[in-house]
Amino acid sequence: MYFEYWHLQKPPFDNVPDPSMYAECHTSMENAIAETLFAIEEGNECLAVIIGDVGLGKTLSLRIIIDNLSPEKYQMALITNPSISFIQLLNEIIGQLTESPCNEKKKAGLLELFNKLLFQTADAGKKIVLLIDEANAITPANLESLRLLTNMQDDRRNLFTLVLAGQIELARRLEDPKRANLFQRIGTYSRIEKIASIEQLRTYVETRLRLAGATGSIFTEDTYPLFWKYSDQGVPRLINKIAKLSLKAGETHGLEQIDGQVVYQVGRQFEKITLTAAPRGKSKKKNEDGLKIDERENISLPVGLEKIEEIVCPESGQGLKSNPEDESAGSIPEDLKSTEIPDESSGQLYLPEVAESSPPAPERIFEEIQVGNFKIRLHLPPQLFEQALSASREDRLKMAGQAAFLAIKKFSQSTSSSPSDPISTWSELRSIIFKRLEPPEREMVA
Fold first, then answer.
1. What does the alpha-carbon distance between residue 434 and residue 430 come to, in Å, rounded to a whole number?
2. For residues 36 and 190, is the Cβ–Cβ distance under 8 A?
């Protein structure tokens, strides 16, 4: 299993409501749980409501609430599919509370059974708690019937607490002026938001890894801004999905850590394809550290890694340099610097945005890498090799990863094709570049 590769005892990011994997860093979720427990245990409330968009943790919150209520004090029923008739709903509730199937056909008979059960449970020193998940699916008629159900209370205390958890549609129904008599009965009205910051997101990921048995760091620092971007700024369900697939990709390719390149490749798979694509040729600028920033992707990359010198289409059998008249292939001709990329059928692709005074390409030419129907050959700038001479092995690996990432990115921007397995392609390309960045033995000894 993939999680065993990372020396974990269980999957850390399964999208299931497992209370043992709860990470206490999601502030709004913690507040919702605490407020609802107060309504049940101390507040003597008949109704508590939790509102939240999809994927934020409503179901997990209900499971944690149930786990925090002692069976010696509370008798509970959890409804996960409330889009049924009120008679079916009461049958399910009574069946769970009595641990015996209930098949009463008449509403009056069910109300009498439920009322009797309330007082029997109270006489036994317990309180009934009814929890309904996906409460936004409750019909308006059933919502009104549940309101009438809350009338079955003692003169001095509420014999049961009803907890409703649902999406924004539930809030709209409850806040409708026509249901003011129901809204006024809400004792606690909680809303679960997204994880509030990148720092909390990092704590969330690292906590779940620790709960699964991790003893060291698995995700590098540069992954968390990408988690934030591709999880729609902190949706736990999306964080889990991206993290799980990243761990699987790391196992597949024998990685020691998951870095930003892997999370980027996984996360971009879940970008909504119906959104308007950003135009090609987006302007770029340099930040204070001299890194070129791709404003569309918001990822910093080293200056000098902005050109794929050659992309050869094997069908044409041609392999023209960027400048056929210049054997050094150091720069693109002036009249091509601001032009659009030509048709692929020519067998040659020019990439724009090359600096006016590009340094000569190094003598080393890397072997061809197959990407779909294309082969790519890379020329890397000499300063990259100079930096590699004094860099640590880890830094050289990062440099190779950035170069491989940009090569794939430029390829997909410059053609209508994308690698069918971008992570595999990136890993293969990174490995080749990394080997080329290894210093000669005499320099390593020195």
1. 6
2. yes
The residue to which tokens 């509403």 are assigned: 107
Average pLDDT, the chain: 77
* 0.85 surpassed by pTM: no
CB 331 within 8 A of CB 379: no
Distance set, CA 174 to CA 81, 135, 180, 388 (Å):
19, 11, 8, 63
The position carrying tokens 């979720």 is: 29
**What integer pLDDT is reported at residue 159 of this predicted model?**
92
pLDDT: is 335 or 264 the higher one?
A: 264
Q: Is 425 exposed, middle or buried (0-12, 13-18, 19+ CB in 10 A)?
A: buried
Q: Which token pair is 253?
A: 């390719």
Dump the DSSP string for 145-200: HHHHHTT---SSS-SEEEEEEE-HHHHHHHHSGGGHHHHTTEEEEEEE-----HHH
Total Cβ atoms within 10 A of residue 3: 21
Contact 86, 97 (CB under 8 A): no
Distance CA 163, CA 82 (A): 13
**pLDDT tens-digit profile of 348-361?**
322 223 333 334 44
Position with higher pLDDT, 436 vs 23: 23
pLDDT band at 245 (very low <50, low <70, confident <90, very high): very high
Is the confidence at residue 336, as pLDDT, over 50?
Answer: no
Long-range residue pairs from 14-21, CB within 8 A, at least 24 positions apart, any chain: 14/240, 14/244, 15/237, 15/240, 15/241, 17/59, 17/60, 17/62, 17/63, 18/60, 18/63, 19/60, 19/63, 19/64, 19/67, 20/211, 21/208, 21/211, 21/212
